[in-house]
Amino acid sequence: MKILTLVRQVPDAEARVKINAQQVDLEGATLVIDGMDEYGVEEALRLREGGANVEEIVALAVGPKRVEDALRTALAMGVDRAIHVETDEKLDPIALSRIVAQVAQAEGVGLVLVGGQEADWDSQALGAATAERLGWPQLTWTNELKVEGDTLTGRHDVDDGNESFRAPLPAVVTTQQGLNEPRYPTLPNIMKAKRKELRKDDLATYGVQPRVRVVNSEIQTRARLNRMIDGKDPQAAAQQLLDLLRNEAKVIA
Amino acid sequence: MILIVAEHAGGQLAKSTLEMVTAARAVLESGGGREGPVTILVLGQNVAEVANAAAAVADQVLVADLPGLATYNAEVWAAATAQIAQEGEASVVIIGGSRSGREYAPRVAVKLDAPYLEDAIALKANGQALQAQRYTYLARVTETVEAEAPVIVVTVKPGSFAPAAPAPAAGEQYDVELDLPAPRVEVTGRSVEKSSRVALTEADVIVTGGRGVGSPENFATYVEGLADRLGAGVGATRAVVDAGWRPYAEQVGQTGKTVQPKAYVALGVSGAVQHLSGMGKSKYIVAINKDAEAPIFKVADYGIVGDVNQIVPALIEAARK
């Protein structure tokens, strides 16, 4: 079985987000592999190391030139080769799913791993949309995964708790915290990664247009009261806080 | 028509369904040529009561009361929703922004070849286009997005719209036939994280504990103790969940739940970005932390620099009065 793992590049969680001309401006921001996607890369490697019949692991990224860095990281973690669909076009998840599905089909993969919620879009749509385009089942918010032959088993979070599941391959799995601890690339592996194949594709090959337009973006920080209460006398502080919550904020009875 | 897929559990229509009705009416009132009736689709088994509750707020209710819909499945829900949207020529399909809603809504969008506006906090027509606001970049940015197409699929973030009040006359109910696919994902076990407390996404007040609380025992004494006193839900940070002190169901943040209560009381919480993204939209934020430099104080309305072990017992005692 081949595994396709999607890699996106997002600003570091601690980085300050800038807005320029009503759009998010990533110029100068520290960019990293989306943590949720990193769990997917790690899981593909672990499935192979754990004895599942994994013949090849391919990482895919769609985005501007700089996204190469994220693919190099995935290669250094241990994926076998990478495909970069290079474009400056901003694609929404539904549009992007067409590329992921086409690559999955062309490569003949049996399992697609995608992050459960992207840290830039705050979207959960990519895995499900890809699964629908392929006509495959999907497992979202997965935190335990096993592959035996053509069967996928594991556990994932649902609305009110979690479920154990069994599903036939091929399938799409979205990954999240708790699934594993992603490894750091070692220096020898970083060197080795430089010699691995990183194929460049053209967006035009995939015939994909964005379906959603970003009209504007703004940073809306809610003005907070920032009222500090002296904590030296716990009783007085507690009483003052309760008074404020009851009488000023009127949020408790 | 504007098609809303009802969210319900335990024979009760969820508040989120009433919020979706308000979102649908907002679309109709803003013009743009998308027309009613506001239609609620109820998928499930033994859902007569849910359908009646839906009829109280919608122009019409389509009821699919079928054994094949006894338990939620993404592929089945997507197929059912897309079929009804096609047959009813829906111009907007509104689905709840719950974990399951955001799981099957993209499949509906692909089936209908529709654009998808995910997790909307506001919705209106802009000429022929449908325009939504949503949070991005770990909820640090509010983005306005729009799409133009004969049918558009939308999910609505829970807590973003006021629940619709009952309409003057109950909507008509119709039974619908569906061609359901066989589910391929088999559920082999289920663990429901039940809590006697109010659900995090519904709670008006949430008390959350971080590592600064000190220990699992302190968490029970102080965080749960204060929550019980205030009739609040209990939340936890990722660090506390990773440490195994509390179940994942209580985690608030990017990889946990997003909440928007009237008051959010953070005890021993440092305020990492991944946590702020899940609770930063709370109306009032209260922070109690020993570390005066903790980032949580930057977003707090009321802050106390002090030891949770001393302040919280005083707070529980004072709240008793």
UniProtKB/TrEMBL annotation, chain A:
Pfam families reported for this sequence: ETF
Q: Which InterPro entries match?
A: ETF_a/b_N (IPR014730), ETF_b (IPR012255), ETF_beta_N (IPR033948), Rossmann-like_a/b/a_fold (IPR014729)
User: Which keywords does the record carry?
Assistant: Electron transport, Transport
Output the Gene Ontology terms for molecular function. electron transfer activity
The cofactors named for this UniProt entry are: AMP
The chain positions of domain Electron transfer flavoprotein alpha/beta-subunit N-terminal read: 21-210
Which Gene Ontology BP terms does the record give?
carboxylic acid catabolic process
Q: Which SUPFAM superfamilies match?
A: Adenine nucleotide alpha hydrolases-like
Record PANTHER family: ELECTRON TRANSFER FLAVOPROTEIN BETA-SUBUNIT, ELECTRON TRANSFER FLAVOPROTEIN SUBUNIT BETA
| Primary role | The electron transfer flavoprotein serves as a specific electron acceptor for other dehydrogenases. It transfers the electrons to the main respiratory chain via ETF-ubiquinone oxidoreductase (ETF dehydrogenase).
Q: How does it assemble?
A: Heterodimer of an alpha and a beta subunit.
Protein family (similarity comment): Belongs to the ETF beta-subunit/FixA family.
Q: What is this protein called?
A: Electron transfer flavoprotein subunit beta
Automatic annotation (TrEMBL), chain B:
Q: Which residues belong to any copy of the Electron transfer flavoprotein alpha/beta-subunit N-terminal domain?
A: 2-187
Ordered alphabetically, the record's keywords are: FAD, Flavoprotein
Per UniProt, the cofactor note for this protein states:
Binds 1 FAD per dimer.
The entry's family comment says: Belongs to the ETF alpha-subunit/FixB family.
Tell me the domain of life: Bacteria
A molecular function (GO) term: flavin adenine dinucleotide binding
Q: Could you mention a single GO BP entry for this protein?
A: fatty acid beta-oxidation using acyl-CoA dehydrogenase
**Which co-factor is required?**
FAD
Instruction: State if Flavoprotein is listed as a keyword.
Output: yes
Gene3D superfamilies found in the cross-reference section = HUPs (3.40.50.620), TPP-binding domain (3.40.50.1220)
Question: Which Pfam families does the entry mention?
Answer: ETF, ETF_alpha
Q: What is this protein called?
A: Electron transfer flavoprotein subunit alpha
What are the binding positions for FAD in this chain? 211, 237-238, 251-255, 268-275, 289
Q: Which SUPFAM superfamilies match?
A: Adenine nucleotide alpha hydrolases-like, DHS-like NAD/FAD-binding domain
